[in-house]
């Protein structure tokens, strides 16, 4: 293997492959057309399958996210239009050595794909004419990974199983796993291409345990940037911590100097498949829906007034003497100030997996939240919600997982190297 994660795959790509590599080589030419280069989307170009001169990509297709860095991508990356979550178990007989080789392969592959290049000689061609489209590939380790690899002494206590909650109806077959991969992109074909490539690269080392597909609103679909909506029609994610806040890193990322050096700069992901009982929810009037949530449906503002970002006036009462934001409203119960400052970065995808025989939609939220410590982030908030959230009758937690996500790799490193080669 070469010194950098990107070299080994690119060196194996065949010369006559109509590679996505060409799209990045055309950046200079596309820039001359006046397209804007920047973090939100640049002037990359794509290769036409006919072999003609490449044409300019849209800003959506040309946007790239760095693979290397202090943190893995897909955590603070803005919500993407398409997502895939997939968990693997190491194959029988596979252990430490096989896991290390797998993480090398996956990291090499992820670096190539996120840069907009092909997945080597076996590339399926699904994304030939697309740019990177903000592709991110994020890797995490489940509790059982440490048993399988003989690294139990390196397993943090924060990976202890989550407590049971009354709204849980968990399917073990769709929960947990030795390894977890989150894929996100603003293009569905680019996301699927990465999913297929990751699955194939697992080879004989790991087997798929479960896989879930999600989506969000596409970039540019609204007239102005705004917080996403979920399938209940509610603005979802208003109180998310922001990277600009002074204590953001402390809340979301594991600090350097931690007992487990391999996890410095990393985070913990709680993953929940939450079924929304939409038929029941949609029987409520908009006014009753707003009282369940505690926010206006139109713009996400608190029922006590203002805009989406206005603080909740939790003590305000109406002419009838009752709290304007009910005492069991979701926004009240989940507010950080109601939970000792507990906070987590929510970064979900919606899902719709078809219609049940009785006509009920199998739809809801692939809830993914990030925190430096799940025992201080997800767990206390969910415990409080479990005791009296007005939203609880309209949702059902059907799958669950908790994963330790290492910090981002440096140039020449693979994800998890500091653990697997410690």
UniProtKB/TrEMBL annotation:
Cofactor(s) it depends on: heme b
Keyword Oxidoreductase assigned: yes
Stretches assigned to the Dyp-type peroxidase C-terminal domain: 227-408
Enzyme class: oxidoreductase
SUPFAM superfamilies (alphabetical): Dimeric alpha+beta barrel
This protein's UniProt keywords: Heme, Iron, Lyase, Metal-binding, Oxidoreductase, Peroxidase, Signal
Cofactor, how bound (note): Binds 1 heme b (iron(II)-protoporphyrin IX) group non-covalently per subunit.
Pfam families found in the cross-reference section: Dyp_perox_C, Dyp_perox_N
Domain of life: Bacteria
Region named Disordered: 216-247
Subcellular localization: Cell envelope
Catalysed conversion reaction: heme b + 2 H(+) = protoporphyrin IX + Fe(2+)
All copies of domain Dyp-type peroxidase N-terminal, residue ranges: 72-216
Family matches, as InterPro entries: Dimeric_a/b-barrel, Dyp_perox_C, Dyp_perox_N, Dyp_peroxidase, EfeB/EfeN, TAT_signal
EC number: 1.11.1.-
Entry keyword Lyase: yes
Main location: other
Family, similarity comment: Belongs to the DyP-type peroxidase family.
Protein role: Involved in the recovery of exogenous heme iron. Extracts iron from heme while preserving the protoporphyrin ring intact.
Classification via PANTHER family: DEFERROCHELATASE (PTHR30521:SF4), DEFERROCHELATASE/PEROXIDASE (PTHR30521)
Protein name as annotated: Deferrochelatase
Annotated organism of origin: Streptomyces maoxianensis
Gene: efeB
């Amino acid at each position: 293997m070469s010194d950098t994660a990107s070299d080994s795959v690119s060196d194996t790509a065949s010369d006559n492959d109509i590679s996505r590599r060409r799209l990045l080589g055309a950046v200079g030419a596309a820039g001359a057309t006046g397209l804007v280069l920047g973090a939100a989307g640049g002037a990359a170009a794509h290769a036409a399958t006919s072999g003609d001169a490449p044409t300019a990509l849209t800003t959506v297709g040309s946007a790239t996210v760095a693979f290397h860095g202090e943190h893995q991508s897909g955590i603070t990356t803005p919500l993407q239009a398409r997502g895939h979550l997939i968990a693997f178990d190491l194959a029988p007989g596979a252990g430490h050595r096989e896991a290390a080789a797998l993480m090398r392969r996956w990291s090499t592959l992820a670096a190539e794909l996120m840069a907009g290049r092909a997945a080597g000689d076996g590339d399926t061609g699904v994304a030939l004419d697309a740019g990177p489209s903000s592709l991110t590939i994020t890797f995490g380790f489940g509790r059982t990974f440490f048993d399988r690899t003989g690294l139990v002494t390196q397993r943090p206590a924060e990976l202890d199983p989550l407590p049971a909650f009354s709204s849980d109806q968990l399917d073990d077959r769709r929960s947990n796993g030795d390894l977890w991969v989150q894929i996100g992109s603003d293009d569905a074909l680019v996301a699927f291409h990465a999913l297929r490539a990751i699955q194939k690269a697992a080879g004989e080392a790991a087997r798929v345990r479960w896989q879930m597909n999600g989506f969000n609103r596409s970039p540019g679909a609204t007239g102005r940037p705004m917080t996403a909506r979920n399938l209940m029609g509610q603005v979802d994610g208003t109180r998310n911590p922001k990277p600009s806040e002074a204590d953001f890193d402390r809340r979301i990322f594991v600090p350097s100097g931690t007992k487990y050096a391999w996890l410095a700069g990393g985070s913990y992901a709680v993953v929940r498949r939450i079924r929304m009982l939409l038929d029941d929810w949609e029987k409520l009037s908009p006014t009753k829906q707003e009282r369940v949530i505690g926010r206006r449906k139109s713009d996400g503002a608190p029922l006590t007034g203002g805009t989406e970002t206005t603080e909740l006036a939790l003590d305000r009462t109406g002419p009838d003497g009752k709290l304007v934001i009910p005492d069991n409203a979701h926004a009240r119960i989940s507010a950080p100030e109601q939970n000792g400052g507990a906070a987590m970065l929510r970064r979900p995808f919606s899902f719709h997996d078809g219609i049940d025989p009785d006509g009920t939609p199998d739809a809801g939220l692939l809830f993914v939240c990030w925190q430096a410590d799940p025992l201080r982030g997800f767990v206390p908030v969910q415990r409080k919600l479990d005791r009296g959230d007005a939203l609880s009758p309209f949702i059902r937690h059907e799958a669950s997982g908790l994963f330790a996500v290492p910090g981002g790799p440096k140039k020449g490193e693979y994800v998890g190297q500091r653990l697997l080669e410690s």
